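Sample intake sheet
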Amino acid sequence: MRARRGILGLLVTACVARGPAAPPRGPAPPLSVALDTGHLAALRGYIKHGWASLTRSHRDLVAAAQDPKVAHAAGSPWVVYVASDAERARAEAQLATELDVAQRGEVVLRTLPADRQMIAEHGLLYLPRPYVVPGGRFNEMYGWDSYFIVLGLLRDGEVARARDVADDLLYEVNHYGAVLNANRTYYLTRSQPPLLTETVLAVFRATGDRAWLAAALPAIEQTYALWMAPPHLIPSLGLSRYFDRGDGPAPEVVGGERDAEGRTHYDRVRAYYRSVAVTDYPVDKYYDRAKDVLLPLFYKGDRSMRESGFDPTNRFGPFAVDIIHYAPVCLNVLLAQMEQEAAEINTLLGRPQPAAAWAARAQNRRQLIDRYLWDAEAGLYFDYNFETGRRRRYPFATTFYPLWAGLASPAQAARVRGNLGQLERPGGIVTSTTVSGNQWDAPFGWAPLQWFAVRGLQRYGYGADARRIARAFVALVASEFATNGTVVEKYDVVRATSDVASAIRFGYSENQIGFGWTNGVVLEFLGVIE
């Protein structure tokens, strides 16, 4: 009982979003013990308390505008951009009632220039409703994080907060052109894995608001059009790829991903290229060895890898910069799901003709996924290089996505399930079978990939496997929470620990606390295992 009271006491003092982790509380309990009632009650309490701490409203604008990922002159106001002069007037009126004079002096509102190249100083992009940030250094609303956050909010009865997040995602599409990587100006050139219809339907099922659902249709159609037009569309395949529309180094990487020696990610990449012979792709497209410089195509690939959300990984070769030459499993399955769900939404709204057109698109993409991404010999789904005409045989947890979306045949699902041993580890599903030093590879596990695997296995009747994996991941999160008083972004699912820094060479080694999508997936999994 003393141990349980100690864990519950952490709820009072744990910093959920921005402060340091609580000091270690001793060795973690065995994973089986971490699933007892006391541990899980403490974890639930932490997550419930955390939604408010992770929420950013207009009252929090000064804190939300601050960005550790870019340089900022001390004493100068933080810039917040609005989409138009009309939106600027609206925002000014809101802030006049919600911020005092001193607070208003710490931010400056500017209208976003029509030519994004004219942005001289990066800043926050205004959103009209409160939103939930992931936590830690991620002090803005992220594209695919928000879906898992919404799932958690709905599980926790936070329906109004979940609808606010969905409204802000729709606002991004309508006013900034896409569901953005996140609401900062340096993310305006890229989106993130498309989960908008998933989010909209989740909120609709909680509210039953058909007028709201109908109002979301234009943003859904615009989002789909973004992925179905060049440069995202691969015309020769009819499938899509990740492709950032910006050029040069990603600003948030230059300013926010430095190691103890002050080297940026790009410095570490150049050091790798100098010392390692790369055979996964023609490296001279990306790196000039004689001049020791990264070439423009490297930065295009690097930015596009960040649009995928898997930043970085060796899934598409070192640092994933060759991603621009691949039709990825994850993206195309999510687009197939979007097509299926757009059909469902149109059916709900009594629009049979558009529903049929969307369903036909989904069926066509399913056939293309079978043709290009399914590897019958390996019994796994792999990404397809449209330049070489070959799948890259790199076992990765995205192989579960087609099961999640119901695109696999029963025989294909059985083959994937038969290969479960390649990716299942003591703490859940490992990202890949390769230890590369990248954070989106082995031995690390991430909440979204647990979600797709568990839901995919459930969908095809492999309930025992799904419950085992869900229990393993929840137990890992609960065990580390009992030790450190926090929920974090990433876990080593091989050693069953959140101590990951020493194994990460590429990416940011610090483990961010909060943490939005982990919270959401844990709450979903508690519904599976309890």
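Comment: DSSP finds 19 helices and 18 strands in the chain. The longest strand covers residues 78-82.
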